[in-house]
Amino acid sequence: MKKILIIILIVVIAVFIGSKLIPNSKNINTPIQEEGNNVSKEIDTPIKEQPVACTMDAKECPDGSYVERVGPKCEFAMCPTPTTNSTTASINQSIFNNGVYIKPLEVLEDSRCPTGANCIWVGTVKIRAKLSTNDISQEIILTLNEPSSFENKKVTLIGVSPESNGKLKPSDYKFTFSVK
Q: What 8-state DSSP symbol labels residue 146?
């Protein structure tokens, strides 16, 4: 009888010590009884992790936005990935890019150096365009490779085709825009 009590005591101590040595497990086995069935089975029940309080500081991302600390290690969240969404439109064709509708209206200036000519200045292109969102609409002048602000975004005319030959009609032009 003494031997049985000693064995039971050793088992209880071993279970106690074992439970303290095993790090916080993510799951524990919980017995359940299915309705209408005399068979019980075990399921994994997640243990709730303790909440983590991170400091309330922020990191500025390259695009000007901010991210805060998150997760169990209180690391800064990833900055948004910059996208180079570009879309192309012709005169009087409306396109949608990153929340902004863009409609080129007319070419105001095309001083690009014609193909095959030797120029001392590369030249530029300026267009009048209508920019709009669901709430606001505005006509602005866009100059090639010069960002313009509209509704907290930067709209840029990043490309004009075809190359200048000095004899382009308005319908020949294709404009490529970027909105960030």
A: B
